[in-house]
Amino acid sequence: MSLLEVEHVGFGYSRDRRTLDDVSLALERGSALGIVGESGSGKTTLLRLLLGLNRPSTGSIRFDGDRLDAGNAAFMRIYRRKVQAVFQDPYSSLDPRQTIGRIVSEPLRALRIEGDHRGIVAEALTSVGLERGIVERYPHQFSGGQRQRIAIARAIVARPQLLLADEAVSALDLSTRVRIVELFQRLATQMTLVFVSHDLGVVAALCDRLVILQQGRVVEAGGTREILSRPAHPYTISLLNSVPRMPA
Amino acid sequence: MSLLSIEHLTIRTGAQPLVSDLSLTIAPGQRLGLIGESGSGKSLTALAAIGLLPPGLSAGGSVQLAGHEVVGTRDANLTRLRGAVAATVFQEPLTALDPLMRVRSQIAEPLRRRARRDGRRIDVEREVVDLLGLVAIAEPERVARSYPHEISGGQRQRVAIAMALACRPQLLIADEPTTALDVTTQASILELLDRLVRERNMALLFISHDLPIVSGIVDDVIVLRRGEAVERGAVARVLTRPEHGYTQALVAAAHRFDAGLERAP
Amino acid sequence: MTALAETAVAPARRGSWTLWAGIVLVGIHVLVALLTLVWTPYDPTALVGHRLEGPSLLHWAGTDRLGRDFFTAIMIGSRIALIVGIGAVAIGAAIGVTLGVLAAFATRLLDDALAAAFDILIAFPTLLIAMLVVAATEASLGSSILALGIALSAVIARLTRIVAKRVLTLDFITAARTAGASWPSIVIEHILPNIWPTLAVNFALQFGIAVIAEASLSYLGLGAPPPNSSWGYLLQAAQGTVYTAPIAAFAPGIALVSLVIGVNLLADGLRDIADPTRRGVV
C-alpha cells in the first residue's frame, strides 16, 4: 500500500478555471517525489491540501490507507505528527520574536509530545548541521541558509514519516543550495520526501520520481531519469529546453 | 571613451565595507556580467553606477558614466545622465512599475523626456505601441491600457525593458531581470534582451547569481565575493576553467544541478 | 577626475534622546501622582487662603476662587490624568484588541461588516461618544474612564484587525498550523507578540487622546467632581480669572501638554527597544 494516495483531486474557485483538476498520484514509502510546476500550476494548492490546510473540492487523499479528514481535529493531531513541512521563504517562516529554541520545539509542544524537549531540540539542530547552543538566539542573527536549516530542524523534530518541502531551496544562494540539497538527500534516507519546485535541476538531484503539473493538471509522471532523458509531453519538453545550461 | 568606468570603488556602511576596491570598464557595445551571491555587492555596484545608492552608505573611488563623475554628484545633475547614457531593468517587475499608473503613461514618461532632449515632436500613443511591439508583447494596445497588476509577470518585465529602451540608452544595466520569472518566461526574456542589445548596439551590464544564464548572454565576466572581485575574464574560460577557489566551488555547484538534465542522445 | 574623499550619501538613525525625554516627562508626573497618595502641600478641599491669590511662597500657584490651594489641585490632576489614561486605554484595548483579532479571523462577509462597523464608530468624535455614555450614567471618574474606553476601542479594533491580518499571511503562521498548534495558541504565541510594537505606539497616542478628551469632558462639566478634579475642571474654573491670575489657566494646560508629549516620546523609544531585530543592528 502506498504511503500517500491522491485520487482525482480537484480544487478551484470558479467553474471554468480550476486550480487543480483531476490530479492523481501515488507516493511509495521511502521514495522522494518531485512535484514540478511553474506559477499557476497549482503546486502550492496541492501542497496545502496534503498538509490539511484546505479541503479538496472533489476526490480524496489517503495517508497510509486512511482518508485525510482536515476537519477532524483528533485525526489531524495524529496526522501532523506524521507529516511536516518546510517552506520557501527563510525570512518569513520563522517568528522573528521567538528564540530558536521555542521555534524548533513548537511541534513538540503543540502535538503534546512527551520527553526531554531540550534534548530533542538539541539533537534536531545538530542533525541539520547547527550547534545546540543557538537556542537562545533570534532568527535575524542568522543567514538565509541557516534559517532554512532551523526550519528543517523544526520540521523533523517530531520525527515525521513524510516531509513536504515547498520550494525549500529556491530562495537560497547557489553554494548554500548545494549544502541544503545534500541535507535533504540525507533526510530522504530516513523519511519519505515530497519536494515541490519549479527548478528541474534541483529535483533531478534529489528525487527519484517526478510529477509535472501544468495549469492544475498532471501532464507527465514517472521516474526522474526516464522523464528527463526522454520527455513525452510537449510542456515537459519546453520546460527542459528553457533551462539554461552550463557551457561544456 | 568607455561608457562606464569604475575605479577603486568602495562602498561602506559605517565601518563595514560592502564593496572593496572594485574596478571595471565597459566600452560601447561590450557585454559584461557580474556574478555573485547575496552579500557580494553586485546590486550595490549597479546602483552606484547610476548614483542611486540608498541612504546610510558612503562611497569612495570613482564612477564615471560617459566621462561624467557620479560619486558625490548632486542628484539633479545626474538625471541628465540616467536614461541618456544608462538605463536599468531590475529584478522585481511588480515593484518597478507604479501600480497606480496605466502602462502607457509609464512608458510615455521616458519617451517624452527623450524627445524633449532631442528637440523632436512625437506621437506618444503610437510610439508606446511600437515600443511594446518591439519587446514582443502580443496585443500591445490592450497592454498599454492596462494597469501593472492586470498583466502577467513576464509582460511586466517586458514593459520594464520597454521603459528602459525608451530612453535610447547606450548602456543597459540589468540586475537579475529574470530571477522572479518562470523558467519558460525567463528563456524568452533572455532571448529578447540578447536580440535588442545586439540590434541597437548597446552595451550590457548583466548582474546575476545564475551561472548558466550569465554564460549565455555576456562575453566577459567578473566574479564578486563579499564585495571583492576574485576573478575576471572571458565567460567561457571562467566557467569552464575557473582559477580562483571560490569560482571553482560555484562552477562545481552549478554542475551538480546541471548534470541531472542531460538528455538521452 | 577622481573623487577620493568618501562621500556620505545621507545620515540615518535617530538618537535615543526620545526615550530619555519621555522617561523624564512621564516620570515627573508619575512621581507627583504617587506623592499625592501620601502627601499634598495642603488638603485639597480645605479653604486655606484668600480667594484668587496670586502665586506666593505659601501658595506656589496661588488659590482658586474658593480659597483652595491651586498647586495641590494641579498635583492631584497628575494622578487623575494617569488613572484616566491608563484606565481608558486598558478598557479600549481589552475590547478593541479582542474584536480586532476576531475580525482578522472572520470570513469575508463578517469581516467586511465588522470593518464597516468600526469605521462608522470611528466617524463619531471621541468626545461625542464619551458624552453619550456619561449622560447615560452619572458623572464620575469611573464613568469617564468607561466612556473613553468605549470610544477608543473602535480605533484600536481597526488597527488590530489590519496588523493581525498581515501577520496571518506570514509563513510562520502556516508553519505553526502545520506543527499542530491550535488557533488560540497561535494568537497568543505568534500574533499578539508580533502586533504588539504597532499597538503599543497606538496605545500611547490613545492615552494622550483620552487625557485630552477627559479634560474636555471636565471642562464641560461632565467629568468627575472635586476632589477628583482633573486639569480640565481647573481650566474651566480659571476662565473668569485669566487676566487677574493667569497662572491658574496656564499651569493646568502646561501640565496636560507635558504629560501627553512625554507619553508619546516614551512609546517611540520603547518600541525601538522592544523590537529584537533592531538591537544593535544598523
Q: How is this structure best described in words?
A:
The complex is a heterotrimer of chains A (248), B (265) and C (282). Chain A has helices spanning 43-50, 73-82, 100-110, 117-127, 144-156, 174-188, 200-206, 224-229, 234-242, and strands at 4-12, 18-27, 32-36, 58-63, 66-67, 83-86, 162-166, 192-197, 209-214, 217-223. Chain A has 248 residues and is α/β, with parallel strands linked by helices. In chain A, the strands form two sheets. In chain A, strands 6-7-8-3-9-10 form a six-stranded mixed sheet, with helices on both faces. In chain A, strands 2-1-4-5 form a four-stranded antiparallel sheet, with helices on one face. In chain A, α4 crosses α5 (144-156). Chain B has a single domain, classed as Rossmann fold, CATH 3.40.50. In chain B, the strands form two sheets. In chain B, strands 6-7-8-3-9-10 form a six-stranded mixed sheet, sandwiched between helices. A four-stranded antiparallel sheet of chain B has the order 2-1-4-5, covered by helices on one side. In chain B, α4 packs across α5 and α7 packs parallel to α8. Chain B starts with a strand and ends in a 6-residue tail after the last helix. With 282 residues, chain C is mainly α. Chain C has a single domain, classed as MetI-like fold (Orthogonal Bundle), CATH 1.10.3720. Chain C is 68% helix and 1% strand. Chain C contains nine helices and one strand, in the order βααααααααα. The relative contact order of chain C is 0.15. Chains in contact: A-B, A-C, B-C. Chains A and B meet through α6, α7, α8 and α9 of A and α8, α9, α10 and α11 of B.
Which structural class best describes the helix and strand composition of chain B? alpha/beta
What's the number of extended β-strand segments of chain B?
10
**CATH architecture assignment name of chain B:** 3-Layer(aba) Sandwich
Number of helices of chain B: 11
Order of helices and strands of chain A: EEEHEEHEHHHEHEHEEHH
Enumerate the strands of the largest sheet of chain B in spatial order, edge to edge or round the barrel.
6-7-8-3-9-10
| Average of the residue pLDDT scores of chain A | 93
Radius of gyration based on Cα positions of chain A: 18 Å
Q: Mind telling me the CATH superfamily name of chain B?
A: P-loop containing nucleotide triphosphate hydrolases
Rg of chain B over CA atoms, rounded to whole Å, is 19 Å
At CATH's second level, what is the architecture of chain A?
Answer: 3-Layer(aba) Sandwich
Number of domains of chain B: 1
CA-based shape of chain B: globular
